[in-house]
Amino acid sequence: MPLTVRLHPRDNVVVAREQLDPGTAVPEEGVTVEAQIPRGHKLATAPIGAGEAVRKFDQIIGFASEAAGPGAHVHTHNCAMGAFAREHASGSAYRRTSFIEEAERASFQGFRRANGKVGTRNFIGVLSTVNCSATICQFVAKRFPEEELALYPNVDGIVALTHATGCGMADHGDGYDALQRTLWGYARHPNFAGILMIGLGCEVNQIDFLLEAYGITRGPLFRTMTLQGVGGTRKTLAQASSIIREMLPFANEARRETCSAQHLSLALQCGGSDAYSGITANPALGACADLLVRHGGTAILAETPEIFGAEHLLTRRAASSDVAERLLARLRWWEDYCARNGGEMNNNPTPGNKAGGLTTILEKSLGAAAKGGTTGLMGVYKYAETVTTPGFVFMDSPGYDPASVTGQVASGANVITFTTGRGSCFGFKPVPSIKIATNSPMYAHMIEDMDVNAGTVLDGGVSIEEMGQQMFDLVLRVASGEPTKSEALGLGDHEFVPWQIGAVM
User: What gap in Å lies between CA 150 and CA 157, rounded to an integer?
Assistant: First the structure.
């Protein structure tokens, strides 16, 4: 097996499969290692002069901050960000999707809801409008008698969704709108049989304002209350518990039935990435996403800072110039957002990403964008905005995984796929989260948390297409009720993190 991985003939770096010590000959590249190259890090295969572009994936991932000769370790000490023009060529690579005939599409066992959506789980949710009602929401979920809940076997549980905002904020603008979209998205999510929304009563994020803005009506399976209106903690807990008891028989009537894969909406997410993310797990997840799109489903890519430097690969796949411009507009917004908050796009990657071999956000983004597969980009959505266009779409969000996934679920995702190279112990109630390891050593080390080992693409002779098919098959099984590792471990109660935009006052 070669010592390194070459991703394109025009690249001037390759990736070390294992740690390479000084003096090691790399016959496939005709170079000798000058300094220790950690596993997953980059090795120069040609002279790279100071200021010259460093190329990987046949794309620019940075510029040499000092000269590097053949056999040199290329990383943060000698490779840095730099501005350069990218040809966005809107729609130039767009191709119509070759859909599977409806009669031949894959299916899963899901919960059909009255609004036409299909759930993959059957929870009752207790949703706080403001941090001031967070503890009581947790009380309602945690203190409900387990023996009583056990009488309703078709209900997956009661989950409290609490957060750190909802007041001390403007009652208009990006932050307020994003929070309301998020709460509305969860209130109507098909993985919930019923929702109880609890507020304090005096907060900026008023329940009635939300209901009015989105035309929501109360009913047996959507109830609201405030601590101030009911009369305090003890009375609210008692009344909320009574409401849950009223909802449980209705929720328990739900039954799984055969549903087309076109009702699946897949969140494409990565966290704790390493250099192998863009080589194994992410391209394989992209192949899985392509399969889902061909079966009529939806795949949602997010994390806007983590497509910076790879956005031109997405705009070229845009179904229209308007779609491409919407994506570029979000990137311009992010550049301004970072500037006015004293940050920069290259603040990402994290220390763990860098230890795993990723040097710049350009390199990380090129690997992250691979999760989106190859089909046309059909739409670009605001954070937590309801996705109405099937196919491959993009949703604006931070790169912070819990905040990004919160938005994807609010947009309608009913299964989460989460690739990781460093390891991530991530769950996300009410939606099942499938964790995909990028490399075999980490998979073996954290096997209790990992559902898929995509490392076999690199060391087991499995093709990207074969791994993508394996992932697609697992998505169907999980959507049908097969528990993921995170569900078996009970993870996912505290990852609901709405993106907090703007001043806290």
Answer: 9
pLDDT in tens, 119-131: 999 999 999 999 9
**How many whole angstroms separate alpha carbon 274 and alpha carbon 293?**
27
Token couple for 6: 């070459």
Tell me which long-range contacts 79-84 makes (C-beta under 8 A, separation of at least 24): 79/42, 79/54, 79/359, 79/360, 80/360, 81/346, 81/360, 81/361, 81/362, 84/53, 84/60
- What is the 3 state secondary structure string of 354-414? HHCCCCCHHHHHHHHHHHHCCCCEEEEECCCCCCCCCEEEEECCCCCHHHHHHHHHHCCCC
Share of the chain above pLDDT 70, in %: 100
Report the residue count for the chain. 505
CA dist 421 and 459 (Å) reads: 15
Place of tokens 């266009």: 389
Question: What is the residue whose two structure tokens read 């790399």?
Answer: 26
Bigger pLDDT: 372 or 212? Answer: 372
Mean per-residue pLDDT, 322-329: 98
> Which of 82, 73, 81 lies closest to 357, judged by CA?
73
Mean pLDDT rounded to a whole number for the chain: 96
Residue type, 320: S
Distance (Å, whole) CA 301 – CA 97: 17
The C-alpha atoms of residue 376 and residue 275 are separated, in whole angstroms, by 26
Half-sphere exposure of 354 toward its Cβ, with a 13 Å CA cutoff? 15
Q: Which residues contact 103 (CB under 8 A, 6 or more apart)?
A: none
Beta bridge mates, 37? 20
**Sheet with 192-199: strands ordered across:** 157-161, 123-128, 192-199, 222-226
Give residues with Cβ within 8 angstroms of 111, minimum separation 6: 118, 119, 120, 121, 122, 190, 191, 193, 254, 255, 256, 257
The residues, any chain, with a CB within 8 Å of residue 94's CB and separated by 6 or more, are 316, 317, 318, 319, 376, 377
**pTM summary value:** 0.97
Q: How far is CA 90 from CA 163, 303, 316, in A?
A: 38, 20, 5
Q: Which of helix, strand or coil describes residue 37? A: strand
3-state secondary structure of 173: coil
d(CA 170, CA 383): 18
Residues 6+ apart with CB under 8 A from 39: 16, 17, 18, 19, 357
Helix (H) or strand (E) holding 328: helix 321-340
Question: Rounded to whole angstroms, how far apart are CA atoms 460 and 117?
Answer: 39
8 Å CB contact between 262 and 105: yes
Model confidence over 287-301: pLDDT tens digits? 999 999 999 999 999
Query: In b/e form, how buried is each residue of 93-119, taking b as 16+ CB within 10 angstroms?
Result: ebeebeebeeeeebbbbbbbbeeebbb
pLDDT at residue number 158: 98
